[in-house]
Design brief:
Blueprint (H helix, E strand, L loop, with lengths): L1 E6 L4 E4 L2 E2 L4 H11 L4 E4 H4 L13 E4 L10 E4 L2 H7 L5 E2 L3 H7 L5 E7 L7 E2 L9 E6 L3 E3 L2 E10 L2
NADP nicotinamide-adenine-dinucleotide phosphate binds next to strand 1, strand 2, strand 3, helix 2 and helix 4.
Length: 159
């Protein structure tokens, strides 16, 4: 499976249920990479999507023990095992922190947007640079949007 995430310099990913910053070019890239593939997400991350709804054009596999019914365009899984049985290999894990933690070991490609800044945060992604199981496969040059510099790094699990 794949994982996609935007991190700051400390691998922080969010605060108070929100993303640290939105970069419109990064949102477009997220859409291009995930479109047509299943996405795996936690209930709290779905709440951050437009209208708090599943993403269009993608099968949305949502982890939740509290959602009473599946929102239109989404499938709800109460347990990780059930979700894993249903999740195809081309799925993208799209967050949040608890779902990344639970599923990173199942992923072999990580699409990371690195923000060149440090933000106040309350949740983090594991530091792949410090994890010997992962290596950088591709690193793009820095870009800037609204004064924020960022760049894309693709990591692959070592064989
Ligand atoms: N920077 C990025 O790329 C990025 C991407 C996505 C999200 N984020 C950020 O991450 C933060 C949210 O992360 P989070 O960890 O608080 O929330 P989350 O992972 O999005 O959702 C947590 C919820 O998912 C459900 N869940 C998780 N594991 C489960 C399991 N094993 N079985 C059943 N249900 C399970 C539970 O829902 P119920 O409570 O309904 O049972 C749990 O409360 C936000 O700040 C968000 O903006 C950042």
């Amino acid at each position: 499976m794949n994982v996609i995430v935007a991190v700051d310099e400390n691998w922080a990913i969010g605060k108070d249920g929100e993303q640290l910053r939105y970069i419109s070019a990064d949102l477009k890239r997220f859409k291009a990479l995930t479109m047509g593939h299943p996405v795996i997400l936690g209930r709290k991350t779905m709440a951050t999507f437009p209208g708090g709804r599943p993403l269009k054009g993608r099968r949305n596999l949502i982890l939740s023990r509290t959602l009473e019914e599946a929102p239109e365009g989404g499938e709800v899984y109460r347990e990780l095992d059930g979700l894993l049985d249903a999740a195809p290999e081309d799925a993208f894990v799209v967050g949040g922190a608890s779902v990344y933690r639970a599923l990173l070991d199942r992923c072999d490609t990580a699409y990371v947007t690195k923000l060149h800044a440090a933000f106040p945060a309350d949740c983090w992604f594991p530091d792949l640079d410090a994890d010997p199981a992962w290596e950088v496969a591709e690193e793009e040059k820095p870009q800037e949007e609204d004064g924020l510099v960022y760049h894309y790094v693709t990591y692959r699990r070592k064989r």
